[in-house]
């Protein structure tokens, strides 16, 4: 009896000790459908975690439940050991940056940033200095008296960030904060948000559908699909060891082939036998990253246990600046190969027979359920 | 024939081309004409009339005199009348705003069929004339009516709800509500649910969110609704006449009395010009409010 109790208590106690934000079976139902289905997540203090997934995967619903703007159907939200599931948003002490920034249009930049402090009844002189510091942090000191509509998208974004951070929230929540910015600004803001988050050592949750943002900014990536968790891991884990074909195809580009695993470390794909790093048996999906495949002359190299080699014909070549994309026809399936472009030299032509070569360990295999 | 056709390419007829300004003038001409004949000329006539001399028995002598205007400000009755009209109209405007604002806010936040249904419900009183609705209020507010009856049944001394200012305010408030609600809705465009959520996550309680965010963002709608209702209240005549029972003296009812009963047209014209001046002042306040919030 005693032993049983300890066993059940042990796992939750260990996650409790290092998790600053913890979601326990968090669920949101709308009628019969699940927006979020029993999500468990533990975010250690000071980490930036990305909720990554396509639109409708429940990532924004999750974030809004954490902020208190949506009431969960089931489950708990725990911050620093306190259950805040039933707490109204204005008591939660969270900084939320909206996709649309949601600045107060009738207030100046300084007033926008001061708002949270005024709600907390911070003394006026302290508000002045903290607003100044927050605006300095996002390099907007000179625009303090402007109205939001007089600012560019990037500047509004930084005001929203300053407004969320000036209250020194226990958790920073970012809802697709970069999606309304142009590509160049997005790269800048990505680094800026990451730097600020690390300097403050604040726990942060970042919702995005952009795998580049998730991989480049975050300590951990939570891949979601249809309200469920697909995989949690570091960016490298999620990219290199995807837990499912969905994760493999959503995080980075992949080629996909269907085959039959024979249980001896090989898989039959049409007439081709591929070597794989697993001994599963049955129908499988095989995935390879386009940039891990090398394009060789059609002459066959001597057989090698550590690489797979298959033959095909180039159907199309796309020049993408820093990359060359080859679409290669292999027995009727198309495999995409990416190679660095070298001053436009060494481009192979359409119709050329080639050999595709990749390392066995770069072959990802996922069992298919019938 | 065919050679002629070849020499003149199609659409080569000389065309009258109007510039942008020309087109605008042409399009505005009909309404400008109607306005000139139906509004500006009559107003100028009224202005001229207000400087004519009134003779006993309804006669008018077409000589210039300031008698009507100076009489207005020397007679305590008329000073009271002006002040009373403005105060009562402002009270009606404020009461209308107070009861309409929650309805407009709810309507703004509802959606789909429910919203359509509610909107129709809000507008539907406009399908009946103000006269009919005023008689409805007479039935409700009368001394033997259900409201007075209920208050008396509870053991309180019932207040007089009709043939006094209270009755006028109650009746006009209800009659003006659709205008106020529609104006408020038209001015609620800047209200963004995300902005309210932002206020909440920053620590604002619902009441603070209302006073600091929702209310300031709806000022354009409030200003528009108040302007419209104030103007309608000042110029309304049937409802004060019936619900006031001849005991509530307002500008519009007095103009009617002077023009129709006493037959003092110069004084009626003077009072009408005064109403126009009050409207002008209300418009100036409205413009100022809009400038300040911009």
UniProtKB/TrEMBL annotation, chain A:
<keyword id="KW-0813">Transport</keyword>
<dbReference type="Pfam" id="PF00005">
    <property type="entry name" value="ABC_tran"/>
</dbReference>
<dbReference type="InterPro" id="IPR003593">
    <property type="entry name" value="AAA+_ATPase"/>
</dbReference>
<keyword id="KW-1278">Translocase</keyword>
<comment type="function">
    <text>Part of the ABC transporter complex PotABCD involved in spermidine/putrescine import. Responsible for energy coupling to the transport system.</text>
</comment>
<keyword id="KW-1003">Cell membrane</keyword>
<protein>
    <recommendedName>
        <fullName>Spermidine/putrescine import ATP-binding protein PotA</fullName>
        <ecNumber>7.6.2.11</ecNumber>
    </recommendedName>
</protein>
<dbReference type="InterPro" id="IPR017871">
    <property type="entry name" value="ABC_transporter-like_CS"/>
</dbReference>
<dbReference type="GO" id="GO:0016887">
    <property type="term" value="F:ATP hydrolysis activity"/>
</dbReference>
<dbReference type="GO" id="GO:0015417">
    <property type="term" value="F:ABC-type polyamine transporter activity"/>
</dbReference>
<keyword id="KW-0472">Membrane</keyword>
<dbReference type="InterPro" id="IPR050093">
    <property type="entry name" value="ABC_SmlMolc_Importer"/>
</dbReference>
<keyword id="KW-0547">Nucleotide-binding</keyword>
<dbReference type="InterPro" id="IPR008995">
    <property type="entry name" value="Mo/tungstate-bd_C_term_dom"/>
</dbReference>
<dbReference type="GO" id="GO:0005524">
    <property type="term" value="F:ATP binding"/>
</dbReference>
<dbReference type="InterPro" id="IPR003439">
    <property type="entry name" value="ABC_transporter-like_ATP-bd"/>
</dbReference>
<dbReference type="InterPro" id="IPR027417">
    <property type="entry name" value="P-loop_NTPase"/>
</dbReference>
<dbReference type="InterPro" id="IPR013611">
    <property type="entry name" value="Transp-assoc_OB_typ2"/>
</dbReference>
<dbReference type="InterPro" id="IPR005893">
    <property type="entry name" value="PotA-like"/>
</dbReference>
<dbReference type="Pfam" id="PF08402">
    <property type="entry name" value="TOBE_2"/>
</dbReference>
<comment type="subunit">
    <text>The complex is composed of two ATP-binding proteins (PotA), two transmembrane proteins (PotB and PotC) and a solute-binding protein (PotD).</text>
</comment>
<comment type="similarity">
    <text>Belongs to the ABC transporter superfamily. Spermidine/putrescine importer (TC 3.A.1.11.1) family.</text>
</comment>
<feature type="domain" description="ABC transporter">
    <location>
        <begin position="21"/>
        <end position="251"/>
    </location>
</feature>
<dbReference type="GO" id="GO:0043190">
    <property type="term" value="C:ATP-binding cassette (ABC) transporter complex"/>
</dbReference>
<keyword id="KW-0067">ATP-binding</keyword>
